Predict the 3D structure of the following.
Amino acid sequence: METEYPLEILWRHLQDVPYFRAILRSVEACFVRRLALPEPMLDVGSGDGHFASVAFDRPVAVGLDPSPVMVREARRRLVYRLAVCADAVAMPFADRSFASVISNSVLEHIADVEGALREIARVIQPKGRFVFCVPNHRFARLLLGSRVLSSLRMRTASQWYGRFFNRISRHVHCDSPSVWRERLERVGFEVERQWDYFSARALATMEIGHAVCLPCLVTRKLTGRWILVRNRVNLLPAYWMVRRHFGEPLPDEGAYSFYVTRRT
């Protein structure tokens, strides 16, 4: 799949979120910007609205998230015409309310993912497009820690590390495309396109960033902002750390999968 990767997308993420999140979200924003997603659109798991504010050049109809704190922040960003606090498995919308639905790295965190998919199928219009991305079955295996331990023939430790990282990432589902296709078909979606992205090298940069960016968590708790000094000079080290991964060719084995589906 050919995709443009405007550097401005990367900078806008780096100015608001830690670099390990910025590199992944920037790539996903570039994917989304290339798609035709008609309004009214629903963003399932909209969080604080930052991703939508970068991915779209227009206000999105509705953002839905179960966290009141995140919904309040999304409302302050003015990226949604309506920001709703509700669970993805019990959406307060009428049948066929939306022409398209997006969910960016959210479904992997939902225990009742089948219930969430049924709700998305209910609220989307016939032929409506549903777009989402998730970590896949390779995620744990491609982690740097897992690969190092495996190379040392410490298989049990390697598997433990993968489970540990999934746990701290709050991943409930890291499944293959075949598993997702079955889930989607059961609720009435057909997969139009699917591709894997985010190489092992990019994943390693993100993985290490979880430790390097711990001070950002303190800043977030104290001030409500991940990044205090947002000028590009201050962010240049982070930029050079992630720039090589931004716009990299789609790998043969990626740790994440992107799906473009349509309601039948």
